[in-house]
Amino acid sequence: MSYVRGFAPWIVYALLSAIGWQWGALAALVVAVVSLIADRRKGVALDAQILDFGSLAYFAGLTAFSFADTSSPIQHFDGPLASAWLALIAVISLLVRRPFTQGIARRKVSVELAADPRFVHTNMVITSIWTTAFAASAMVGIAADILNTGTMVDIARQVLGLAIPMYFTHRYVTRIRARKAAAEHTALATAPNAQLPTAVNA
Questions:
Q1: pTM flag (> 0.85)
Q2: Judging by beta carbons within 10 Å of its beta carbon (0-12, 13-18, 19+), is residue 193 exposed, middle or buried?
Q3: Which residue ranges of the chain lie beneath pLDDT 70?
Q4: CA angle, corner 2, sides to 87 and 179, nearest 5?
Q5: What residue numbers bound the domain in which 54 lies?
Q6: Any transmembrane segments, and where (predicted)?
Q7: 3-state class of 83 per DSSP?
Q8: Any residues with CB less than 8 A from the CB of 170 and at least 6 apart, and which?
Q9: Is residue 193 part of a domain?
Q10: Do the domain assignments include residue 156?
Q11: How many angstroms separate the Cα of 76 from the Cα of each of 12, 17, 67, 88, 122?
């Protein structure tokens, strides 16, 4: 649910843009503002809101542009543009070593775990997965628009652009947790043996 919440403005836009891209952009902007304010009141750190600020900037610009020219041909490429913007957000977050997925994950872990270098590394990998998915979705979207494949293909592209990285994120995190659990189990199993010589000498 954390990822769904993080991408709420983009999901709202994808659903409502069929009514009119300007109205979809406005609704997404409202969701982005409300989400950002709610997180600020909860004390969420600024570096954990990279996706939120990126979403706010995109939909603020898109809302202004779409209402200024509702018939602009840019609207036919709004899907790929959105994916490309998300890819840009993800790339920037990787370059500054503040992977955007880290901000989402930090909401569910302890302060100690969030400060662990392994936690950062895990999110660097996960964010790389999302970056690849966003870039691929943008390229597929551009090709689909040029070939005029229709709305259903674009909807499928957007759904898969979120669903596939979510799936791989879940698989990767599950594998990391399994390794950690196995390591802790091994440590507990070997701890009594490590203390045995001391007990004998005593």
A1: no
A2: exposed
A3: 1-3, 184-185, 187-202
A4: 90
A5: 2-188
A6: 12-38, 50-68, 80-100, 120-143, 155-173
A7: helix
A8: none
A9: no
A10: yes
A11: 17, 11, 15, 20, 36
